[in-house]
Amino acid sequence: MSTLALRPLANTLYRNNNLFLFLLLTPPLLWFGVAYLGSLFALLWQSFYTFDSFSMSVSPEFTLENYRSLFDATNLDIILRTLGMAISVTLACAAIAFPIAYYMTRYATPRERGCFYVGVMLPMWASYIVKAYAWTVILSQQGILYWFINHLGLTNGLNQVLQLPIIGGNTLATSNLGRFIVFTYLWLPFMILPIQAALERVPSNLLQASSDLGARPGQTFRKILFPLVFPGVIAGSIFTFSLTLGDYIIPQLIGPSGLYIGNMVYTMQGSVGNMPLAAAFTVVPIVLIAIYLKMAKRAGAFDAL
Amino acid sequence: MSKSPFWLKTLAYGGLAFLHFPIAVILINAFLAGDGEKATFTLRWFHEALARDDVITAIALSLKVASVATLLALIMGVMAAAALYRRNFFGKEAITTMLILPIALPGIITGISLLSAMSMLAITPGFWTIVVSHATFCVVMIYNNVVARFRRMPHSLVEASMDLGADGFTTFRHVILPQLATALLAGALLAFALSFDELIVTIFTAGHEITLPIWLLNQLARPRDAAITNVVAMMVMLITALPIIAAYYLTRGTETVEGSSR
User: Fold this and answer.
1) Would you list the DSSP string of A25-67?
2) Which of A34, A106, A228, B170 could cysteine-pair with B166, CB 3.0–4.6 Å?
3) Which pLDDT tens digit goes with each residue over B132-159?
C-alpha cells in the first residue's frame, strides 16, 4: 500500500531535481545551520557580556574585558600549560606512530596488516572513560606498573625521574609524566591511521630507486620518505593537538593540580557561573586550532586526508 | 618484499602492545576475585553488577540514547549525502564543513554551546537533549560512509535502469538501495558506538540523567566499588567493540578499491 503512495512521489522528485535538492537539504540545514551554528554563535556572543563578580551575575553589556583577562598571569599560565602538553603529546604520538605505520605498510603480510588495522582501530574506538579508568588503575601505587618497576629493581630510577622538574611529581599518577603517557596513549591511534594512509601512497619503487642510486637507508628516509609522508603526520597531529587542547577529564583524573583550558571552561560555566569568561576561554582552542590548520594547510596536509 | 629489520618489528609490535595493555588490564581485572595476593577467577562480579539498579538504568539509558541518536543521524546523514554527492552549488563546501564541525571542534565547545543555547531557550536538559547533542556529531559518520559509497556508484547504473523502463521509485528500490545498504549499516554502527560511550558533550547536555559513561566517571570517586566498575567497564568495551569490528568488515573491500585507485 505504501508503495502506491510513494511511487508518484519518487517519480516527481526524480524529474524535479531542484525541488528534490531543496527537500533533502532543508532538514540538515535547519539542524546544523540554525540549531548548531546558532548555539556556537550565541556562545561567542556571550563572551562579550559583562560578569559582575560582586553579584555573581551576567549582564548583557558589551565588553572586551573577558578577552583581556585571558592574558592575566594565571590564565596565561593555563593556556601555556595546555599548549605545552598538546605539543609534547603530538610529538610523542608522531614518534611512536611512525614505526608502527611503516611496518604495517612496508613489511606486514596482508593478513598481518589486517590484524594491525583492527588492532589500532579497536583501542581507538574503545570507550574513552574506560581507557582513562584503566590508566588510573595501572598508574596507582598499588598498580601493575609500580609492581613491575619494583620487581625489576628500578624503583630508584623511577624516583629520580619523578624528582625532575616539570615532568615529575609525588607519584606517577600525580605527575605530568603520567598525564603525558595517558594523553599519548589515548590519541596515538588517531596519528597512526593518517600516517599509514600517507605511507600507502608512496610508491615503493621511489625508495628502491633511491637506494639503487647509492643512498643509505637514513638518507632515503630523510630525503625521500619523510617529505612524502609529512602531510600525513600533520593530518594526524591535527587530531592529537585538538583533542588535547579540549580535554577536561584527564587533567582531573591524572597528573598534578593546575587547570587546563577545558577545566577552566568547565568550572567557569558550572560552579562559578561566569559564562562570559568560559565563552572567551573556548575561543582559545578555536584560535589555536585555526592557526594550526593554517600552518598545516601550507604544509599540504589536506591533500593527504 | 624484503624482510623487516628486527628493531622495526619490535617497535611496531611494542606499539601495538602499548595500545592493548590497558584494555587487557580491564579484561583481566573483571574476572579476578579477592584482593591482591590471592587472585582467582570468578564470575561473581558480573552477577553483582547486573543485580544493581543503577547499572541497569545507566546501560538502558545509553542504549536508548544511542539508538535514537543513530536513527536521527541516519536520516540527516543520508539526506545530506544524497544532496551533496553529485551536484555542485554555491555554499556546498560550507555545508560539508558545517557537518564536520561537531567532531572537529573539541567536544567541550559543542557541549557548552548547546548547554547555553538550551538554558537561553529554557529547555530542561534530559533524554532528548542528550539525543540531539549526540545526533549532531553522529551525522558526519553516516554522511562520510554514504557519500563515499554514492561517489563510487556509477551514475550510469541509474541511467541504465531508467532506460530499461524502471521509474524513479523502482530504480531507488532495486538499484540504489541495495548498493547503499552496507554503507548505511557501517555508518550506523559507527554512530552507535560513538554515541554509546560519549562523555565530554554528554556531561553538559545530560542534566540529571546518568548515562553509562557518566556512571563510570562517577564510579572513579568510589574506589571501594572497583570490582563492579571493572565489570561494567568491560561490558562497555564489548558493546562498542562489536559494532566497530562489524563496520570494519562491512566496508573493508570497498576501502582498498578506493585507496588503490588514487
Assistant:
1) HHHHHIIIIIIIHHHHHHHHHHTTSEEETTTTEEE----SHHH
2) B170
3) 999 999 998 899 888 888 888 888 888 8
